[in-house]
Amino acid sequence: MSKLEMKDQRERDQIELEADHRRNKMLKFLKGVVAGSGTGLKDLPYNIGDPYPSAWGSWSHFRGTSKDDGSPVSIFSLTGTNPQDGHLAAGRNGVKRLRTVRHPNILSFLHSTEVESFDGPSPKVTIYIVTEPVMPLSEKIKELGLEGTQRDEYYAWGLHQVAKAVSFLNNDCKLVHGNVCMSSVVVTQTLDWKLHAFDVLSEFDGANATATGPMLQYEWLVGLQYKPMELAKSDWATIRKSPPWAIDSWGLGCLIYEIFFGTKLGKTEDLRNTASIPKSLLPDYQRLLSSMPSRRLNTSKLIENSEYFQNKLVDTIHFMEILSLKDSVEKDTFFRKLPNLAEQLPRPIVLKKLLPLLASALEFGSAAAPALTALLKMGSWLSPEEFSLKVLPTIVKLFASNDRAVRVALLQHIDQYGESLSAQVVDEQVYPHVATGFADTSAFLRELTLKSMLILAPKLSQRTLSGSLLKYLSKLQVDEEPAIRTNTTILLGNIASYLNEGTRKRVLINAFTVRALRDTFSPARGAGVMALCATSSYYDMTEIATRILPNIVVLIIDPDSDVRSKAFQAVDQFLQIVKQYNEKSNAGDTADAGSLGISSMPGNAGLLGWAMSSLTLKGKASDQAPVATANSVTPATITTSTSSPGLIETPSTAPVHRVSSSTDFTDQPMPPSPTSTDGWGEIENGIHEEHDSDKDGWDDIEPLDEPKPSPALANIQAAQKRPVSQPKPQASTSMRPKSTVKVAKDEDDDLWGSIAAPAPKSASKPLNVKAAGAVDDDDPWAAIAAPPPTTKAKPLSAGRGRGSKAAAPRLGAQRINRTSSTGM
């Protein structure tokens, strides 16, 4: 052979090798398409776990998990010793059918592979199918243990789902399943029933009149007890003349028998026993098992007309599944009834089926706001871990909703889930959306936002508390709604312990004395007094003596009896603190003397706790501070921000308390504070003054003690005159705060002169002569001051001893509220 011929031969051999390689590669690919999607058990991306005790036919059913994320799956395996085994051929048919047929009530296919092993003299072939996690129906029924009406409702729902799957195969796909029974039904984690076991599945060729061979190639896999008469006789001519649903309708009848009798069908004759079949289902059961194939009930007709499927559970789940097709009125009606309805339904179905449907509907916007009530009601039946996993993620996403009704529903029920939220989630995801409600045009939403801070504030960072929340509260303390102003004071007192020391020094006294004690709404003044008492442990002796007591003392002649009573309590309490400080100082115990406060006094814990509980309870008129007007005989009508219960709720009409004729307060709607600067108000409106203070609302707190007011007004006036000579020497002591050193001498004289006046009526006159130039030049609130409110504030009335600054807009709601409180 010449060299040229040898070269040609080598080239031909190379071409043949390449062709063989491509042919083998193509065969391997086709085998993967037909028999599976993997190359071997080692390459199966799932771990095989424990087996279930039962499965359809020769298959084995295992629990499994994904190697990627650990998510649960189900793994079915079928093993044969002969590659040409008929069971393996039928199994390959089942894999192909399950891969291509998709329906909500048919088992979802994920992966498959075929593995060949050589453990003995002959090779073994194993087919693996990976599906969504499911459980055999017989095992799930035992696990649930339902009885009575709840069992019948759940069976109705499950049969409804299987009937839809069979109807889809028979009527839409012209396919015949061939072996519908309990073993061919599995249950998902959401308790849905799904059809599988497609090994016998085949096309219905009734149009082919000339065909003589078997229509179901693998019908020999079906047990004789499950075969209708024509199939048992292999009468294929009759089968082809029958409707497509004839064989599977018979199988559905077998399934009904097995679930209600709780056992597998032993022989065909047992189907005549109807003792356990519900009466509402019995006519349909008999029509499904008709001896004449042409007269058997179509499964689609069973779904539409059966009385048995008309129950609360089926109707509820069906409504949820087609929720997007319902109008707003239908949705609203349904979700308002759902909380009570859920209590009557089987608890496992509610938690595993309805709850996920409801959470998904809320998350994607197809559910109305009332659905949140139902979601939280169902969530209360979960363990804390399950609640955090299944409910909280949906709630957190809802805070970003622009639907005002959803925002209101979230805030109204925040006490049911707020404690479960982590601090990081609150600070980063929840609070930024909730804070938009502080500036909402709806007073109701502003009030709900304010109330929600009682639960959310402890989870906020110091940066958020000082840089954001306090700015909003500063603005709300001059809100046009008196109830919101009062509730703001209450809230600030309750969150004072979460503020750092510097912020408390800068905020508390200004908020309580400069604003709350000067509010024309009497519950707001009472709240300010009790807030000072409840937070007394945060003030040093200089602040108590020079800033707190002078502001409280003037309220002992307040027009409202409740405010006067609280003022007497507060004076007595703070004097006791000062006395204790003096005693310790005289004894030389200066280390603990400066830290005295209400926390060291008996009953403090009850006071703080009582106030905090009052924020969340639905208020009663008898528990709230009455709105009293002086020298009037007609009821005073008080308009609160909303009719909904808030942190403080005042009755719409309060009784009037008549003041003794010996002292006329009609010219003094509210005694002025000796400090004529309004800390938060000035910052809020761009006017910088000096005093720093803080606020806390404790309007309806029970007093620690009930001190008796002086019976004679002359004694009170004499007590007011005594400390006139004391404030000046204190100005030079080391205990005086740095901010008070800058107070002008004429301001000090006027401060104490206003209190020393012989009578409240005459005292109102000299209070108006304060020099307008005494404006503070160091504003401790400037760092956290909020921008001016969108609603322009009303000017203060001259009757409050601030006539020289009447043109400066401060507490915008004051004049309106004074009118309402006097019955005008």
TrEMBL record:
Protein origin, superkingdom: Eukaryota
SUPFAM superfamilies referenced in this protein's UniProt entry, alphabetically: ARM repeat, Protein kinase-like (PK-like)
Bias-annotated ranges (Basic and acidic residues): 685-698
Coiled-coil segments: none
Cited Pfam families: HEAT (PF02985)
Compositional bias (Polar residues): 727-737
The keyword Repeat appears for this protein: yes
Biased composition annotated in UniProt, kind: Low complexity: 632-644
Annotated keywords: Repeat
HEAT repeat extents: 391-429, 548-586
Positions of the Protein kinase domain: 27-309
UniProt region (Disordered), positions on chain: 627-746, 780-824
Protein name: Protein kinase domain-containing protein
Organism listed in the record: Hibiscus sabdariffa
Phylogenetic placement of the source organism: Eukaryota, Viridiplantae, Streptophyta, Embryophyta, Tracheophyta
